[in-house]
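Revision sheet: structure tokens.
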Amino acid sequence: MTRNNSLFVGKVVWITGAGGGVGQATARMFADDGAILVLNDRYKERIAPLTNDLRSTGTNVLVCAGDLRDPITAERTVDLIKSQVGRLDILVNSAGFNVANRRWDDLTAQAIDSVIETNLSAAFYCVAAAVPIMRQQGSGLTIHIASTDGIRMGMTGGPAYSASKHGLVALSHSINLEEAGHGIRSCVICPGGIDTPFLDHRANPPSAERRAVLLRPSDVAEAIAYVASTPASVRIDQITITPAI
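Predicted:
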């Protein structure tokens, strides 16, 4: 897909889970297109190489490291945005998590909470923190990375993961129902099979041959760019993107 690389110049983009996978690919993509980045990751040391790399190319990067399962992290991030740049154009909820032992026979209460809090509660906290500033400016876009497991039940992800991603789909659609009058749009992207280190969390990680035909994080980043590039009069509610093989 050919993009207008000046389209996002000066736009403020908040990306969660920016330390790897789709989040990192999305950060690099928006940086290449001139955006001002606000990056979250649970671990400061994981996001530091990306931050240093982007700043070395002149990208304006703000960082708020911390665990988004704690709502204070989202609140601190928005406080940083208000004090440093004063607006928020796009929120990309790309933080995600799953446990290795994910079937009902193996799930513990702690594992269930970790999956649902990371994939769903954290996204809720970010939206709740972002919506007021978007309402005030009369515009904004939220994009959420769910999964094909969020639109059907799959055996691979397990029940906790699937439930959390179904919830994320509902979260996105609820924003469109309630916030359209404030100029806020939302899209949920449901990828299936992305080759990221996330796959290493499976009890039986896929082979190198299988990984070779999966989506790349950059494929999902391009879908995010497409959604973000549409005019304010256009809303893309949901996208499903899967490997062709």
